[in-house]
Q: What sequence folds into this?
């Protein structure tokens, strides 16, 4: 899976750029990998997989250009950075070369649970509803979770096939295992890294 990387910071630097989240405690860099749903150019804000992502002028321009070049296809992005007032501040933004396909493209995110309905097996992170019934964990409001799966319908629920609690664990651990596709099985970039953690080229946290 090819991608373009904008303003990429090293994983070590990103790991240090943490922000306190009121009521939850010390936070860390979050990420989202999924379809671009909306662009608010006046506020330099994107909605990606139901998550608000704050971008700078250069990133915004690149996203707008990619949307025009997509010729009607839906753009998919990866954004990673610290959380600020409910948004991910995009220290790293990756525009995927391949278009997003509902129900087929793998989506993933690391974020804080904002709503839980144990009776239906669903939870929310930001504006995204997640069906975790297939993976079975009992989650609580405020949990930091990492989820991967597919989104069968646009802006619909993410059907989770991978799930874990924690502050730095990647989905599909190790130096070559992670969510999605790409060289050595990573989402987006790197030859042996994953989104979340890893030993080489990870987005979020890691050893370098």
A:
């Amino acid at each position: 899976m090819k991608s373009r990387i904008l303003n990429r910071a090293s994983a070590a630097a990103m790991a240090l750029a943490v922000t306190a989240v009121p009521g939850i405690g010390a936070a860390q860099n979050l990420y989202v990998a999924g379809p671009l749903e909306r662009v608010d150019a006046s506020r330099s804000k994107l909605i990606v997989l139901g998550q608000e992502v704050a971008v700078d002028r250069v990133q915004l321009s690149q996203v707008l250009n990619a949307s025009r070049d997509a010729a009607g296809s839906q753009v998919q992005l990866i954004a990673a950075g610290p959380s600020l007032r409910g948004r991910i501040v995009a220290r790293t933004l990756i525009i995927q070369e391949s278009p997003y396909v509902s129900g087929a493209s793998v989506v993933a995110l690391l974020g804080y649970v904002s709503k839980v309905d144990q009776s239906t097996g669903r939870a929310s992170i930001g504006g995204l509803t997640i069906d975790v019934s297939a993976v079975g964990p009992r989650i609580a409001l405020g949990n930091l979770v990492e989820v991967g799966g597919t989104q069968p319908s646009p802006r619909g629920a993410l059907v989770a096939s991978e799930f874990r609690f924690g502050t730095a664990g990647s989905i599909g651990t190790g130096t070559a295992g992670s969510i999605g596709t790409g060289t050595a099985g990573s989402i987006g970039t790197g030859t042996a890294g994953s989104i979340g953690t890893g030993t080489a080229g990870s987005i979020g946290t890691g050893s370098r």
In short: Confidence is low (pLDDT under 50) at residues 1-27, 168-177, 180-193, 196-208. The chain has two helices and 18 strands. The helical segments are 11-16, 57-69. The two ends are 22 Å apart (CA to CA).
